[in-house]
Each structure stands twice: as structure tokens, then as C-alpha cells.
Amino acid sequence: MSRKFLILLATAVFVLAACSKGGTKPDGSEGAEGDAAGGDYSSQSGLETGTVGQGTEYVEAGMEPGDEALIAETVIYFDFDTARIRTEYSEVLAAHARRLGVKSGLSVRLEGHADERGSREYNIGLGESRAQAVRQALMLQGVSATQITTVSYGEERPAVSGGTEEAWERNRRVEIIYSE
Amino acid sequence: MIDEELIKTMMKSVLLRLLGLVALIAVSQPGNAQLRIEISRGVSGAVPVAVVPFAYDGRGQPPLDVANLISDDLLRSGRFAPMGRDDMISRPTAAQDVNFTDWRLLKTDYVVIGRVVEDGLDRYLLQFQVFDVFRGNQVLGYQFKATAGNMRAVGHRAADLIFEKLTGIPGAFSTRVAYVSVVRDQEDVYRLIVADADGANPVIIAESGKPIMSPAWSPDGRRIAYVSFEDNHSAVYVQELATGSRKQVSASPGINGAPSFSPDGRWLALTLSSVDGNLDVHVLNPATGQKRRLTRNPAIDTEPAWSIDGKHIYFTSDRSGGPQIYRIPVEGSSSAQRVTFEGRYNARPRISPDGKTLAVVHNDRGNYRIAIIDLDRKTTQVLSDGSQDESPSFAPNGSMLIYATGSGGRGVLAAVSTDGRVKQSIGAAAGDVREPAWSPYPAD
């Protein structure tokens, strides 16, 4: 099977997972329940007491509750020698896709990286495959190709230096960088 | 009881530490990435040779201790054991003064003598002779014109000739090495440096806060192609060493990487990617901009290297799953043929000057090491013993490979003879050094 097909397959599986979970909050409760968390206006005791209701989370049109927290996560980590996106990142990438969908003036730069093992130019290829896997995932959720650029630094810009398994894990990554 | 010996030892230790501190200050200057080459493994039975201090016939001081330079070159090759000057009974500078009986007693096989003669304003003659002590005759005599400025280069050239006469292998002391130095501080500094093969005269030819990688020499040794991310994306540049003038030759959307000059110097093979990230090997004429795609495969195709006759390109591809070496004709439409089958990881091919072997990065039981593959017999021989060895580059005489490795958590260089008998460790004073590229012989 070709690499490209594998990437597409992995991306498709990942998108399905993301869709099935759409609207689910990080704690697993259904989004609709969130509305009940606010205070009931009729039960307020009135202006004289100066008390204010709890309020509800304000969510921009097109965004989901909890997206802000998910969007704060801007680094996607990968397993050794693969560009397959782990399912744990489905919600994070779905949130990024919604943000880019809402704000069409925003763009992202996806920086792909590899760990230090193996040859340098081949690792540029690996970093690019990872950036492309994230790009495909975002585009399959409606993000416009014009909003995304990719670059691969291979092993040239490690997040953590050192030849340990822990360092390698931190270095196999795609960084999502926003710009206006 | 006060032990005098102990005090002496302590004082010595304090002194050594002070000296060490001075040395540390000296080497931690920014930009100090000079290489230091040491033999970590030499051949057993290295040939004993005496390089006698050369005479100087001129005003003032000689511009350089040429005999010392030649002696150091021979030592670093791992194939010679030069005699220390203090061990020499006599220091002849003319043929009639060489007493072979004395040199036989000192168990040296060859004696090198010579002189530097001032021959006008900044004009010198370097003359040298090599004698076979056992036979009692001259085996080599030569003279070069020189200036104070090129005396080092001329000395290395003399060492080349001596090495060739005594080993049958052309010397490569008068060549240069390009390498990338990285200093990580508050801000990263990437430098592309060109130095003499002995590490002397390091010159920074490019510097950036963003990665610089993949230096490649033109066949005439006058230009270097490399990749720079200085504009936040990769681009390939070609730089003239003599003038420093630089041209951006490829900045396509996506990847611009792994440049490699064709043997005639007119074409660059390089890796480009489409917008969907598919890496393929292309050839580009930097003068005209003419460009042709060579590989058409959805896998990663990269790290091109030309065959000696310029008719094929070897490259890395993971079309079979993991990276392996393939070969494709430059002309015509024939498909690529797989070249490597031993092991699950073979990448970054470099062809030997005689065209018979490929040097690659090879996964050897979990370690990334430098291996050479005999193209006829299809055998793989692992030459290095590190865990993250990469970027092999042949000396132009084919006798040594320089490569990048790690030592004490730092990136350093090393060299190994292609027969595996000689090993050099090559450290830099500061930061990481990597991606060494051995120059071709200088054009005459």
C-alpha cells in the first residue's frame, strides 16, 4: 500500500471519529446539557439584591463549548517513523478546523518535525508527511487549502535536545502556528 | 607530615585547571568551530618516517613550519608514525648530510628533508626530498613555487605527493571540508563553514538563525550548493567560494532540498515537493532554470547522488515501506531499480570516486551507522560504530569517509578509512558540527 493511501485512510478514520464525537465536551457530557448550567432568570431575586446569575458559556457561532481549551493545544505528536495521527487528537484538530472555518481570515502554518534518528533529508520527508497528514485532516473538515501552509524542518529544530526516547517523542511533532 | 610529592601534584593540578580555563575561554569565542582531528585508531605497523625541520634561506622568519605541517598530515592519516624532533640525532637539510646508518639505528623507514628559499618579494621556493633509509636512495624530489599566503596549501600538496609515493594512494591533504556548525543559545546560530582538510583556516560562508543544511561541492571545488531556511521555508542556493556571490536557484512551494552537482557541474539534482507534500527527485539547470522531474512515486524520493558517468542517479525512497536506495537513469523514461536489500534502513547514498561502492546510512541492529555497499557483489560492510552516524562523504581519493556522529551529547565529525583500519575523531571547540562534505581535488 502506498504511503499516500495510508495517510488518506488514517485521515478518513480520524475524521469519522471526530464527527461521531462532534459537540461532545471534554468531560464527555452532551453539549445540550451545558445550557442548563446557567441560572434561571425567573428564579432571580431581583435587582435590589444586586445578585447576578451564573451566566452561560458564550460560544461563537460555529464553535463548540470547550473549543478554546482544545485550540490551546497546538502540538500534535507522532509515533516513530509514521505520519498517522493518533485518535487522541481528533477533538483537538476538529476544534482547530472549526476555528479556521469561523475565521476565514486566519491561516495556519503547519511545521513538521522528526526525531534525530536516520538521515537528515529523509527526515525532512518524514516531517513533511506529518505536516501533510494534519493538513489533510483540517481540509477534510472544511478548512480551505488557501488557509494552510506547510513546512518541514525534519530533525533540524528539535523541541528537546538529547538522544533519549523521551526527547525523541517530544520531537516527532507538527506545530500549528496561527497568523492573521 | 607534609608530603612534598602531594603538594607538587596538587599545584600541578591547579595549574592544569588554570590552563584548562584559559583554553576554555579561548575556544568559547563565538564562531569558533575549528575542527580538531585526532587518530582514534591507526594501522598496526604504521610506517615510521622522519620529517626533519626544513632549512630556511631568506630574510626574517620562514612563513610557516612546513615540515611540521607535513608531519602532522602524515600522522593524521593513521598510516604513518612520524618521529618526534627530539628523537632525531641529526637534522640534515641537504642530501649529502643524510647519514643513513644513523636513521637505520633510529628504525625509521623514510627521511624527508627540505628547505624554503626566499625568491623575491613574497615569493618562495619549497623544495623537498624523500629518502628510503633501507636502500639509501632518494625516492622523491620536488619543488613548488609559493607565497606566504599559500604556503599551507603548498605544504599540504607536498604531503599529498609524499603520501602517494609511499602508499600508492593519492593524498587528500590539500582538499577542504564543508560542514554545518550549530550553536544553540538564546537564539540558534547555524553556520556553513569551509575549512582545510586538517581543520585549519575555517571560513564561515553562510550564517543564519534558521537551519542551514545539505552542503554539496561543485566538481571543480569552486561552488557550494546548500539548503537554507532563512526565509522560513527551504530554498537551494549556490555560492561561489572565491567571491562569496550567491544565487537562489530553487524556492518552489514546498520542499527544496538535497542538492547534488552533476559530474560536469552543469546540473543540480535536488528534491522538490508538490503542494500535497510528495517528494520527488528533479534535475535543474541553475543557469537556465530548465527543470525536469525524474521520479514519479507517491513515496518519499530524496537524497539524489549522481553516478560517476552522470548517466544515473542514486536516491533514497521508502516506496517499499522503509527507506532503501534506488537507481534511475537521468535520460529516458526507464523506471527506478532497487539497489539495496540488506537491512531495513539504507539512506543517503554517496558514490565512491571509483564508482564501485556506495556509502549509506544503514540501520545496524538498531544503530544508525555508515556502511559501504559493493555494487557488483551486493555486499554490505558496516564501517562506523556509533548509534546516530549519518552524512557519509568520500575523500576524493576514495581512501576515507568523513561522517557525522555523536560524542558526549554533542554532534561531532569522524572519519574512517574505507578498509576500516584507520579512524579519526574530529571535534569542534563549540556547539555541534555535522553534515561534512569532503571537497574534490582543487582545480589546477
Describe what this molecule looks like in 3D.
The complex is a heterodimer of chains A (180) and B (444). With 180 residues, chain A is α+β, with helices and mostly antiparallel strands. Chain A has helices spanning 3-20, 67-71, 90-102, 120-140, 165-171, and strands at residues 75-77, 107-113, 148-154, 173-179. Chain A has a single domain, classed as OmpA-like domain (60s Ribosomal Protein L30, Chain: A), CATH 3.30.1330.60. Chain A contains five helices and four strands; from the N terminus they run H-H-E-H-E-H-E-H-E. The longest helix of chain A has 21 residues, at 120-140. Mean pLDDT of chain A is 80; it is low at 16-46. Chain B is built from four helices and 31 strands. In chain B, strands 2, 3, 4, 5, 6 and 7 form a six-stranded mixed beta sheet that branches. Chain B has a five-stranded antiparallel beta sheet with strand order 1-30-29-28-27, with no helix packed on it. In chain B, a hairpin with a 6-residue loop joins strand 15 and strand 16 (268-273). Chains A and B meet through helix 1, helix 4 and strand 3 of A and loops of B.
